[in-house]
Automatic annotation (TrEMBL):
Protein name: MGMT family protein
PANTHER family, per the entry: 6-O-METHYLGUANINE DNA METHYLTRANSFERASE (PTHR42942), ALKYLTRANSFERASE-LIKE PROTEIN 1 (PTHR42942:SF1)
InterPro entries assigned: ATL_DNA_repair, MethylDNA_cys_MeTrfase_DNA-bd, MethylDNA_cys_MeTrfase_DNAb, WH-like_DNA-bd_sf
UniProt xrefs under Gene3D superfamilies: Winged helix-like DNA-binding domain superfamily/Winged helix DNA-binding domain
Residue span(s) of domain Methylated-DNA-[protein]-cysteine S-methyltransferase DNA binding: 19-96
Record field: transmembrane: none
Database matches in Pfam families: DNA_binding_1 (PF01035)
Record bears the keyword Zinc: no
Alphabetical UniProt keywords: DNA damage
Organism annotation: Pseudomonas citrulli
CDD domains, alphabetized: ATase
């Protein structure tokens, strides 16, 4: 069958598209963890996969990748790295305070139920 080899790539593309559509909904001034984003996108416990997918985004992406954090609000990107510094600057621009390389999830965490309808 000619469509069999394309099936895995198609499934992977669907996963990425679902992830990107979910990420695009995270509002300014709010954050989610990799695990929460995976769950919201219907991808189960795929936090590490989410991290890898986001690390492969093009530099000029409009997606708010900077709003995605590690467990407990930890910023995963190293201090002093270009992308880490950019993430911290973007978060601060949105009014999110970063203290000791962490964001207060209770204060800044996005809960879609509270923001819908």
């Amino acid at each position: 069958m000619t469509d069999t080899p394309a099936a895995p790539e198609n499934a992977a593309q669907i996963r990425r598209t679902t992830l990107y559509l979910t990420l695009a909904q995270v509002p300014s001034g709010k954050v989610v963890t990799y695990g929460q984003l995976a769950e919201m996108a219907g991808l189960g416990r795929a936090a590490r996969w989410v991290g890898r997918a986001l690390s492969q985004l093009p530099d000029d992406t409009k997606l708010p990748w900077h709003r995605v954090l590690g467990a407990g609000g930890r910023i995963s990107l190293p201090v002093g790295s270009p992308s880490g510094d950019e993430q911290r600057a973007r978060l601060r621009t949105e009014g999110i305070s970063v203290l000791n390389n962490r964001v207060d999830i209770q204060r800044h965490g996005w809960r879609p139920v509270e923001h819908s309808g």
